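Example A, followed by Example B.
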Amino acid sequence: MDYRDIRQWVEQNANDLMPEARFSHDDLNHIAMCLDHIYRWYHESYPIGDFLTAVVRNDFCESCYHADNVNRKALYLYAIFLENKIPFDYRKKANPVGAMK
């Protein structure tokens, strides 16, 4: 899966699952970039920031605190992407035993 695949997935799912959100073209690019970073974090140990770290740690409150205006509207897409496009053991990678949460 590369950025183009992720961008296509974002557009399809944003339109189908969240038509009321009315994401702009730039919003969809931003979300796709963030999801690409999550994908690369899982597969390549790509570094991610506070918002995406909170997302992969399944920390809803921290995700909301660190989200920008676009990502606040897109949290549902992040959940769907994690459940469908990232292997389920991402939770262990995000929350290693003994790590501070």
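Example B, a separate protein, is given below in the same form.
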Amino acid sequence: MEKEVNPARRLPLMIPQELTAYFKEQQCIFDLKSDNKRDALTEMVDRVCKEHRIKDKEIIIEMLLNRESLGSTAIGKGVAFPHGRTLAIQELSLLFARSIKGIDFDAVDKKPTHLFFLIIAPPQDKDNLYLQVLGQMVDVIKDEKTRKKFISASGFEELQAILQSFS
């Protein structure tokens, strides 16, 4: 079955079931301990590096901080999508993190950020999955009820159920 192509982006459209496959239990932090942007990025990158056996975590952190210096990836409503491309990683990595108390992530609405979807990709990736995952996650998180479900998710199985409900 061929994927439909969005003529505006010229990318195959990712369906929600495909998105769900990028979430791994080991790549979820349901109780982010950090209380500031840099520490939160470091905590998330530490998890990614541990799972992918990456030694150059500082390269990834610097890349993310450079991206943040261009404009915060916190889109408001308690959600951030820190993201970027780096040679330090060989395959697309998606990490979910939640901070119950919230973190000042320089959000456009000036409110604390609670939900983080960290997306890191190599410089080239087949079918531009990086942009597809980012776009699909932005679509998923638009709904207020869905954001509330992510905030209250008790574990990985519940996270998967939330994502699968979008299919």
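On Example B: Residues 29-164 form a domain with the Mannitol-specific EII; Chain A fold (CATH 3.40.930.10).
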